[in-house]
Amino acid sequence: MIDLRGAVVVVTGARGAIGSVIARRFAEQGAIVAGLDLAATDTGAVPIRACDVSDPEQARAAINAVVAEHGRLDVLVNNAGINVTGAVEDLDPGAWDQCFAVNTRGVFVMCQAAIATMKSQRSGRIINAASFAATIPSVGAAAYAASKAAVVQFTRVLAGELGPWNVTANCYAPGMIPSAMNGFAALPAAEQEELLDTLTLRRWGTAEEVADAVCYLASDLARYTTGTVLDVSGGKFATQRPQAAYRAVGEREEC
Ligand SMILES: NC(=O)c1ccc[n+]([C@@H]2O[C@H](COP(=O)([O-])OP(=O)(O)OC[C@H]3O[C@@H](n4cnc5c(N)ncnc54)[C@H](O)[C@@H]3O)[C@@H](O)[C@H]2O)c1
């Protein structure tokens, strides 16, 4: 049973497609949730404070404010991220830096800000957004894929460093969840089919499915799991050609 009642949770990128649902899911399960994003809002289910995670001072101030208000910090979900695309030959080094500033340094500085509190509690959960792109990148995604692969290795090292304090650090790796960031749903139909053909479950994922995985990692059920990447991709990595199974089923007219 997932029980998050009373847990103090910070979710970054909490206005986004996945982050807003993660924040809401935690709140629905009784957690005290502080959302962070580039702009503040107090109109949704979860109040969101302004914090640019690429700025170490803002990151520290945001975590300190939550700890000052609630006396502890149980879960940090580093969900904020940006997508930067462009062939290596043409990629603007400034865009590369910005991608790493948010996706990788943002995770690092938020974790750094949270460590002392979690160590003093002898408990805590750090949950970082990786991506399927950290394992199997797309052409034109060098900056994004490298930034997410770095998050995976960073998280493993962090898990090692925080093990003695009973603080876990894991990644979640969403697969293909249509959002403004990736525009999957706006692609031409043939391209959508091509992408879906790479997925064992052969459908887009939902933000709710990612949020459920994040809540699991935050819960007591995952107390013996650290330094891992939880793949939430509908089986992107299960087999090379999952569409073969669909074809075989179709030929036998089973569906
Ligand atoms: N959607 C997918 O299919 C998918 C796949 C793999 C990984 N991811 C990862 O999941 C996370 C959420 O993605 P999403 O699809 O919801 O994207 P999104 O663009 O809908 O949301 C990202 C949020 O992060 C915020 N943000 C950007 N820069 C920030 C900064 N400097 N400081 C604070 N907040 C900042 C944005 O304002 C936005 O609200 C990202 O880390 C993304 O890389 C998504």
From TrEMBL:
PROSITE patterns reported for this sequence: ADH_SHORT
Pfam annotation, one family: adh_short_C2
UniProt keyword list: Oxidoreductase
Stored Gene3D superfamilies: NAD(P)-binding Rossmann-like Domain
Any one GO molecular-function label of the UniProt entry: oxidoreductase activity, acting on the CH-OH group of donors, NAD or NADP as acceptor
Keyword Oxidoreductase found: yes
Ketoreductase domain location: 7-175
Family designation: Belongs to the short-chain dehydrogenases/reductases (SDR) family.
Name the record gives this protein: 3-oxoacyl-[acyl-carrier protein] reductase
